[in-house]
Amino acid sequence: MRVVVEKDYEAMSRCATDLVQKAIEKDPQCLVRFPGGDTPVGMLREFVSRVNSGMIDPTGVKFVQLDDWVGIGPQDEGSCSHFVNTQLLTPMHRPFADKFLFDGSRIAAIDCQLKEQDAFIRRYGPIAVEVLGIGMNGHLGFNENGVDFSLRSHRTPLSAVTKAVQKKYFGGRELPLAEGITQGIAQIMESELVILLASGVQKAEIVFKAITGQVTNELPASILQKHPNCIWLLDQDAAGLLPRELVEMKNP
Ligand code: GLP
């Protein structure tokens, strides 16, 4: 596990895109996964810009979504599929070769979509590069506190912390969302490269605990200590509590 610290959010986002670009250059047919949330917005902007300027060729690459809310779909602002469409897929002038997105509003078909996602990953996988954010409770995707680390794609109740945080994605509105769909920790651990992005002082404490504490399913991101090729890519604020000797400072 490496912990790389960039001076700010923009530098962190560029560095993440560099790593993704390198993985795509190594295998232009590879499978990639990027998260939702606020943290990856800069990386996605940079990724789209490099696609549109011809620096990155996405036309052999496959894309699979990480997680979503049960009850809302691509038509709903604040859903992860809406985010992926508006921040990534629509602005890209050249599309990915194939993609898998959830539709959380098709509630009767959730189990079927989870099977389809697993099949999509089996078909194109392993995931060459998996970019993740971290929740305020240490969740990865919607792998919430207490998650079974052996699960693959699954449906899960949302934790109290996630329910409290979620309104930031919906313009401050409280939606009655109680469940999520997510890829599982087993699939994250099978990815060839994991990049965990975290930015801002509000993430400093959970980042510190996940990197320096015991590996426990009560803090799901701690499992990344056991991943053979994981990079924690942080800005200085998110890295603020980490001991200096643990981190590689880039362009301080
Ligand atoms: C959200 C999503 C995750 C995301 C994490 C952090 O609830 N389920 O996929 O990575 O929490 O989000 P943010 O980047 O907005 O802090």
Please characterize this protein's 3D structure:
- The protein contains 7 helices and 11 strands.
- With about 250 residues, the protein is α/β, with parallel strands linked by helices.
- The strands form 2 sheets. The chain has an 8-stranded parallel β-sheet, sandwiched between helices. A 3-stranded antiparallel β-sheet has the order 4-8-7, with helices on one face.
- α1 (about 10-25) crosses α2.
- The structure holds 2-amino-2-deoxy-6-O-phosphono-alpha-D-glucopyranose (GLP).
- 2-amino-2-deoxy-6-O-phosphono-alpha-D-glucopyranose binds near residues 37, 38, 66, 135 and 162.
Topology:
Blueprint: E1 2-6, H1 9-26, E2 31-33, H2 41-52, E3 62-64, E4 67-69, H3 80-89, E5 98-100, H4 110-124, E6 127-132, E7 154-157, H5 160-165, E8 179-182, H6 185-190, E9 193-198, H7 204-212, E10 230-235, E11 248-249
Contiguous helical run count: 7
Q: From the helix content, strand content and strand pairing, which structural class follows?
A: alpha/beta
Q: How is the main sheet built?
A: 8 strands, parallel
The percentage helix is 25-40%
Question: What is the percentage of strand-forming residues?
Answer: 15-25%
- Average pLDDT confidence is 97
Bound molecules: 2-amino-2-deoxy-6-O-phosphono-alpha-D-glucopyranose
